[in-house]
Amino acid sequence: NPTDGRFIVRNDGEAAPLVISILDATGRAVSNARSVGKGDARFDISGLSDGVYLLRLRSGDQERHVRLTKQ
In this structure, which long-range contacts are made by residues 25-29, counting pairs with CB atoms below 8 Å and at least 24 apart in sequence? Predict the structure, then answer.
């Protein structure tokens, strides 16, 4: 972090899928949610404006947010 727009999210967890959403600073979804099983998911947000985004990661009843800076 920061990124030019391309990044990978790795799911090393159990079989539960990981649902990933990308949100802008206002909390609006700027990318469709993707469900990822175990393994890697590649993202490309190079078409979005530079700034701070939030990755929302959900698995089962757990949710985590990761700050992402695009330059």
Answer: 25/51, 25/52, 25/53, 25/54, 27/54
Q: Per-residue pLDDT tens for 12-57?
A: 866 678 889 999 999 999 987 788 888 888 899 999 999 999 999 9
pTM of the predicted model over 0.85: no
Tokens of 71: 């330059």
Single-letter code of the amino acid located at 16: A
Torsions phi, psi of 22, nearest 5?
-115, 125
19: its two tokens: 């649902």
